[in-house]
Design goal:
- The protein is built from 20 helices and 18 strands.
- The chain has 457 residues and is an alpha/beta fold.
- Helix 2 packs parallel to helix 3, helix 13 crosses helix 15 and helix 18 packs across helix 19.
- Bound molecules: adenosine-5'-triphosphate.
- The site of adenosine-5'-triphosphate has 18 residues, from helix 7 and helix 15.
- Keywords: ATP-binding, Nucleotide-binding, Phosphoprotein, Transcription, Transcription regulation.
- This is Acetoacetate metabolism regulatory protein AtoC.
- It holds the Pfam family HTH_8.
């Protein structure tokens, strides 16, 4: 059972999710606006927050930030209308676990919630550590044949056998952790631990003791002596993900550790030497963070000995078919349907889509469609609206949205537009309602309701 907060300004949506999640055995609280959500998140102990991106005049991004600053380990899912995918991707950069586009299927929602809770359990269990290669993300092989990724692979081969500090930069989901693991796995100490920490996911007050360890009694709650990750990593690799999120005081301590190859536990009397190689990653522009005074320049230079830039997927489109095939095979095997294959239209759309959320988004899409498919052939209808290229009609909508001098009967106007669009969808699909629903990104049930409302069909 998990503690879940649902934030939506629409009452019907709140109630729908509340009932659904309670049936699944979760404890559910709801909030209709930002202040209520913030107050509930401030009490801590939430496992998951599901928030709509649009909350009247308020934004789900503010809910996300409030939740993450009150309790960084709480997972956040954002629900969006498909017109706002860019904002959804921004939400993922701000720490959301995933996003769901409306209209979503109940199975899809359950799948994403299950994954988010699993992720949280894994983090909690492991003190946000992921020791060793292979626990998450599978093998550390860097897939792709594009020039950009070939260059990355060559640089990895060059730096892996050295002990040089490496800074991996790139947008969210481009494979920065994959590269960190590859550097470790191809290094001379691959049998030593690979220890990863997400610097952005740990409360400020605890990060110093996570990294450097603490002595018993050094602060309230320090009931046992604890090793820091610099010690746990031995002479393996310590991967500092989201290094740009480190608070200033910890930046100072990290700088000193890197300069002297020594660290000290919180409350400790003496330094210990450490042998781990440091790989850091950031999806922020660290140079800009330095200019803004949020990241220490001296630490930046210490980390930035070798910089490896992970190209976004849109700069290496030729890798898309490789990832599609790779994740299809992987998830098909996982769900026990090894012969699953894509219908030609589904494949065409998957290869054409831009993937603003990079490889992670591609992997998520593949996992969803493979899991949700009924038979062996995966039809295009299962793809999220954004991948199907469903577009809101910005120009047409703006033209229809001109307000005449004399005013307008808004409801009648909207009804007329809706009716015309429904009719066209039916015309185009020869009256096949499931097809028409797909064209309009509606569920079948919602289409039927709308048709009945206008007495069509
Ligand atoms: N070149 C690649 N080869 C194989 N898998 C990849 C590659 N790049 C990314 N992936 C997969 O994409 C997903 C996201 O990768 P990863 O977690 O390394 O991204 P990231 O850049 O560290 O993201 P974030 O900044 O959000 O932490 C993972 O499932 C990973 O296995």
């Amino acid at each position: 059972m998990a503690a879940i907060l649902v934030v939506d300004d629409e009452r019907s949506m709140r109630e729908f999710l509340e009932i659904l999640l309670q049936k699944e055995g979760h404890e559910v609280a709801t909030a209709a606006d930002l202040p209520t959500a913030r107050a509930r998140a401030g009490q801590g102990d939430l496992d998951l927050v599901i928030t709509d991106l649009r909350l009247g005049r308020e934004s789900g991004l503010d809910v996300l930030q409030a939740v993450k600053s009150a309790s960084p380990a709480t997972e956040v899912l954002v629900v969006t209308a498909f017109a706002t995918t860019d904002t959804a991707v921004q939400a993922m950069k701000l720490g959301a676990y995933d996003y769901l586009q409306k209209p979503f299927k109940v199975d899809e929602l359950k799948l994403v919630i299950g994954k988010a809770l699993e992720h949280r359990a894994l983090l909690a269990e492991n003190r946000v550590l992921r020791h060793r290669v292979g626990q998450r993300g599978g093998d550390p092989e860097i897939l792709g044949t594009s020039a950009a990724i070939t260059e990355v692979r060559e640089l990895v081969e060059k730096v892996a056998p050295t002990r040089t500090t490496v800074l991996v930069t790139g947008e969210s989901g481009t494979g920065k952790e994959v590269v960190a693991r590859a550097i470790h796995a191809q290094g001379l100490r691959a049998s030593e631990p690979f220890v990863a920490i997400n610097c952005g996911a740990i409360p400020e007050g605890l990060i110093e003791s996570e990294l450097f360890g603490h002595q018993k009694g050094s602060f309230t709650g320090a009931t046992e002596q604890k090793q820091g990750l610099f010690e746990v990593a031995g002479s393996g690799t310590l991967f500092l993900d989201e290094v740009g999120e480190l608070p200033p005081a910890v930046q100072v301590k990290l700088l000193r550790a890197l300069q002297e190859r020594k660290a000290r536990r919180v409350g400790g009397a003496a330094d210990y030497a450490f042998g781990a190689r440091i790989v850091a990653a950031t999806n922020r522009e660290l140079e800009a963070e330095v200019r803004a005074g949020r990241f220490r320049e001296d630490l930046f230079y210490r980390l930035n000995v070798i910089q490896l830039r992970m190209p976004p997927l849109r700069e290496r489109r030729e890798d898309v078919p490789i990832f599609v095939a790779h994740f299809l095979a992987r998830f098909a095997a996982e769900v026990g349907r090894p012969r699953a294959r894509l219908a030609p239209e589904a494949e065409r759309l998957l290869l054409a889509y831009a993937y603003p959320g990079n490889v992670r988004e591609l992997a998520n899409v593949m996992e969803r469609i493979v899991t949700l498919a009924d038979g062996e052939v995966i039809e295009a209808a299962l793809l999220p609206p954004a991948v199907r290229g469903a577009q809101p009609l910005p120009q047409a909508a703006t033209a229809a949205a001109a307000l005449p001098e004399v005013g307008i009967d808004l409801q009648a106007h909207l009804d007329a537009i809706e009716r015309r669009i429904l009719e066209q969808a039916l015309e185009r699909t020869g009256g096949v309602k499931t097809e028409a629903a797909r064209l309009l990104s509606l569920t079948f049930r919602s289409l039927r309701y709308r048709l009945a409302k206008f007495g069509i069909g």
